[in-house]
Amino acid sequence: MITEAARQAFVTQPMISNSVRDLEKEIGIEIFSRNAKEISITSEGAEFLSYARQVVEQTELLERRYTGKKKWRGKSVRFLRSIMRSL
After folding, report:
1. Residue 27: CB partners within 8 Å, gap ≥ 6?
2. What is the pLDDT of residues 12-69, one digit of tens each?
């Protein structure tokens, strides 16, 4: 799961693992349950990821809808994404 995410994002597996752990600390939940042999998603993690997917989908819809309009080109879309990530 983590290795595949790293491959798709063109980053290392430890980078993804560290980012997930940082996120878990920041939001105060355990997204994944880990042991020496496996990793599995927790019930809180499944709920969190469901909401996160909705945020990404809505951001993509906004981008598709407004990217062609002058006021939403380039930096504005990147700025919106950075705000969404910080929430």
Report:
1. 48
2. 888 888 888 999 999 999 999 998 888 899 999 999 988 988 888 888 788 778 776 6
Residues in the chain: 87
Q: Spell out the alpha helix ranges (H) of the chain.
A: 2-9, 13-27, 43-66, 75-86
User: How far is residue 67's CA from residue 44's CA, in Å, rounded to a whole number?
Assistant: 34
* 8 A C-beta contact, residue 35 and residue 46: no
- Give, for 18, the enclosing helix (H) or strand (E): helix 13-27
Phi, psi torsion values for 39, nearest 5 degrees: -130, 135
**Bridge partner residues of 34 (DSSP):** 39
Please give the single-letter amino acid code of residue 62: L
For the record, the structure tokens of 19 come out as 């980012």
Distance CA 79, CA 69 (A): 16
